[in-house]
């Protein structure tokens, strides 16, 4: 609790005690023989203790011309109660109003705290190593690019950096929700906001604090609650009319029946006071954004950044998900899928021969063969100095191996040389190899399908996604293969980047307004589609600025299973917010009706009003919890 | 120039009112009072920024006397 809250709490406790004493005294008849004027003052003292700030604010606001201010309304309601000699009601209304306000402020503070804790990625300090070897603890903002930093086990990485010395496991959970630590060695890039797991790392800063991942993410999360959802806007607009309308209703209710001779003034004023008590829209105004804030917090807890309440609202309506294949359903990394030796060459030998030939090339396919070789022979180096390897543009590579001509490349290369070969029946890009004019086998390289892709698609179906669609520039055979593997419903293959926008636009046109289309991309050259779709979901892959900027929702660790989780969180949030709106409006309207009929007392009104606010806030806090 | 300040405000409705009031000030390009994060953001031209900020704080105090904006 803050100082202010503690002060209010103490005032409430004191006045509550006085109130109970007065209540007992009243009921036991102790106050019966005391003159009215003294009783008035006996109640006035605790009333002032509990309500002086409300009255002060009310007067300040009236002087500024703000009539429909909740303080003013509470003041009028309680003054009205005093006027009709309902002293204990007047005191109770003010007392419970303050209880409600305190509760709201504490609850909001609590949930704010737990969300910021969830996002507790902001580093508090950085340790700079000076040239003379001295270390200095500084604010992360003082670190400049190129500085050498020391990060001990358990410390947060202050800025994006590259490892100079040391090895460690890095805990990225705060950023990605991923609980398995990542191994880093010399030369690896490390991302700010992660925690160094074990060893001491000496790193060089590659970015200043404000350009670092952590600062960007914090900014994004803080701004997220600025982008308001339709529901929040509705409530703000509603509040603007609700209070004046109810207040005018109260005035009419106070004046009209007595003038018409239907009711005594004391009775009509009592009913009007009930109106005034429920005229504050606070339950709605607080609980709606709090619900969204909680939902965004829950998403960030699993490593998904939702860039605004409006996007969370949009995500709850997703019923079609369009994937850009590379980088979402597949890893976007080429890997050797199979080595198919032929003519008596062993698998290892074929891989080795291919690696020697490909060592001159920088092509992704060449690199994947080299990587496969290094993996298999645990880091063995390749001596290609005698190979005389040359690239044949558009075809492949020619080299010399053990005195014989080595050819590595596509089908065309071998066809041109009139070397017979066998095509493997597999998906992916094929590299054929021949040695001394003889076909010795093929290596198939493919983009690896994410192991979790199938599960992710199934989970989406489970949460009500009706259709999954894949867009890709790849040839049909590859596209169909991937789609069949992961269970995609509709395939559009052999597309140019511009076609993708067209296709998505067409799909958007087909849709009705009640459902939304999500586009999932890796953020590389699909920014226009990400922006065009109802909900753009990007793979964050830790630090890709383009993706983070273009998308509405960013999945920090590229795990597409989280798409269904976000949809679930979004739906839950919306459900909670709707419950709150309906519940609060229902109770308020009910009290208004009962109040107008003279059935609801001021007691009921104040309990109703505060109670609704409290329940709505508690309900909103559920949005922060993640259902397993 | 666009800057964000810490801002203590007690009720969501007041935050909305403060935002409205600040947006009406001459020279304000954009303004936001974020109740959830307790932040106040003000965007205005560089040359008049100090003046606009001053006015904005006054406007906020007028709407919600209890609010606290830290400009330090």
Task: Describe the overall structure.
- The complex is a heterodimer of chains A (628) and B (72).
- The model of chain A has no long low-confidence stretch (mean pLDDT 84).
- Chain A has 20 helices and 22 strands.
- A seven-stranded mixed sheet of chain A has the order 10-22-21-20-11-18-19, sandwiched between helices. Chain A has a six-stranded antiparallel sheet with strand order 12-17-16-15-14-13, with helices on both faces. In chain A, strands 3-9-4-7 form a four-stranded antiparallel sheet, with no helix packed on it.
- In chain A, helix 3 (70-83) runs antiparallel to helix 4, helix 4 (87-118) runs parallel beside helix 9 and helix 19 packs antiparallel against helix 20 (602-621).
- Chain A is elongated.
- In chain A, 51% of the residues lie in helices and 18% in strands.
- In chain A, a hairpin with a 2-residue loop joins strand 16 (429-435) and strand 17 (438-449).
- With 628 residues, chain A is of the alpha+beta class.
- Chain B is of the alpha+beta class and 72 residues long.
- In chain B, strand 2 (28-34) and strand 3 (39-44) form a beta hairpin.
- In chain B, helix 1 (12-23) packs across helix 2.
Instruction: Label the structural class of chain A.
Output: alpha+beta
Mean pLDDT of chain B: 84
Average residue-wise pLDDT of chain A:
84
C-alpha-based Rg of chain B, rounded: 11 Å
The percentage helix of chain B is 25-40%
The 3D shape of chain A can be described as elongated
Termini gap of chain B: 16 Å
Sheet/helix structural class of chain B: alpha+beta
The gyration radius over C-alpha positions of chain A equals 34 Å
Strand order of the largest sheet of chain B: 2-3-1-4
Q: What is the H/E order of chain B? A: EHEEHE
Topology:
The complex is a heterodimer of chains A (628) and B (72).
Chain A: H1 3-27, H2 36-63, H3 70-83, H4 87-118, E1 126-129, E2 135-138, E3 148-151, E4 161-165, E5 168-171, H5 173-176, E6 182-184, E7 189-190, E8 195-196, E9 201-205, H6 213-224, H7 230-259, H8 265-277, H9 282-301, E10 304-306, H10 309-315, E11 318-324, E12 330-341, H11 347-358, H12 364-376, E13 390-392, E14 396-401, E15 404-409, H13 411-416, E16 429-435, E17 438-449, H14 453-462, E18 467-471, H15 476-486, E19 490-492, H16 497-510, E20 516-521, H17 527-532, E21 535-539, H18 545-550, E22 553-555, H19 561-596, H20 602-621
Parallel strand pairs in A: 11-18, 11-20, 18-19, 20-21, 21-22
Antiparallel strand pairs in A: 1-2, 3-9, 4-7, 4-9, 5-6, 5-8, 10-22, 12-17, 13-14, 14-15, 15-16, 16-17
Helix pairs in contact in A: 1-2, 1-4, 2-3, 2-4, 3-4, 3-8, 4-9, 4-20, 7-8, 7-9, 8-19, 8-20, 9-19, 9-20, 10-19, 11-12, 14-19, 19-20
Chain B: E1 2-8, H1 12-23, E2 28-34, E3 39-44, H2 49-63, E4 68-70
Antiparallel strand pairs in B: 1-3, 1-4, 2-3
Helix pairs in contact in B: 1-2
